[in-house]
Amino acid sequence: MSARRTPVRALLVAAPALVALGLSTSPASAATTVASWEMNEGAGATTMADSSGHGISGRIGGDVLTHSVSGGRTGYTFPFLKNGVPPTHPGHLVTVPADSQLNPGTGNFSVTMTLRFKPAANGGNVMQKGQASSPGGYFKLEVDRGGISCLFRGTSGSAAVGTGTMSNDAFHTLTCSRTATAVTMTVDGRVTATRRTATGSISNSAALTIGGKSSCNQRTVQCDYFSGSIDRVQISR
Fold first, then answer.
1. 111 Cβ partners below 8 Å, 6+ apart?
2. Are 109 and 159 in contact (CB under 8 A)?
3. Burial level of 161, CB count in 10 A (0-12/13-18/19+)?
4. What is the DSSP letter of 202?
5. What is the pLDDT of residues 100-143, one digit of tens each?
6. Which of 33, 136, 161, 199 could form a disulfide with 204 if both were Cys (CB 3.0 to 4.6 A apart)?
7. DSSP characters over 79-147
8. Which pairing describes strands 33-37 and 228-236: parallel, antiparallel, or unpaired?
9. CA 145 to CA 121: how far, in whole Å?
10. Which of 226, 234, 221, 222 has the alpha carbon at shortest distance from 210?
């Protein structure tokens, strides 16, 4: 019986972050794609399909514009919303039900996405699983000072890295990778930051959301709605 092959696409996505950490990119250590959301559904779609074969699909909120063409790409657009102003807008989110495969646990874990946003946007959470109050820790990617930062918080501590300012309002592909000892951000194949800190285990029962927080009231807890376009998201382990 022939050995099962790791998809070439997964190897290509994982390689830049692994090289940055000084790890091997041989098939023995290659990442496995857990979920891949191409975000190419037609206008009015309500389901974000997972093309990885694992069936981890999401629910698209009614305010999210699917089949939005921007910069030559087809993806989802999340309209501008002012944070901290009630009411909440749950329709602004794409929600993926809780799945243990989306928890980083203690091993290697990476999120790759292609997105576009205006650097002047006043913050916003692009994607997250869990929040600061979540038992078991959480991770998130957010707009931060004109760029994107990612944060992993687990049983051993937290670590955050960023892209730096992304000032050209164009699509970029970024990968945020977490290993047992470090967190690394890569943008368009170039490492922008590495923080060598152990974060420990991260495992929660929260849904994964794209576009902002799900547990918020816009008063004591802002929803941190993201404004911009996303063409693709992939999670690998």
1. 127, 139, 141, 150, 175, 176, 233, 234, 235
2. no
3. buried
4. B
5. 999 999 999 999 999 999 877 668 999 999 999 899 999 999 99
6. 136
7. ----TT-SS--GGG-EEE---GGGS-BTS-EEEEEEEE--TTS---EEEEES-TT-TT-EEEEEEETTE
8. antiparallel
9. 9
10. 226
pLDDT the model gives residue 3? 42
C-alpha span between 139 and 119 (Å, rounded): 22
User: Are 115 and 125 spatial neighbours (Cβ–Cβ below 8 Å)?
Assistant: no
Sequence-ordered list of residues with C-beta below 8 angstroms from that of 98, at least 6 positions apart, any chain:
204, 205, 206, 207, 208
Residues 6 or more apart whose Cβ sits within 8 Å of residue 1 = none
- Dihedral (C-alpha) 233, 157, 160, 141: value to the nearest 10 degrees? 30
Question: CA 11 to CA 212: how far, in whole Å?
Answer: 29
Distance between CA atoms of 92 and 62, rounded to whole angstroms?
7
CATH class of this structure's domain 33-236? mainly beta
pTM assigned to the model: 0.87
* Helix or strand holding residue 13 (H, E): helix 8-20
Instruction: Specify the DSSP class assigned to residue 5.
Output: P
Mean of pLDDT over the chain: 88
Q: How far is CA 9 from the centre of its chain?
A: 18
| Count of C-beta atoms within a 10 Å radius of residue 84 | 13
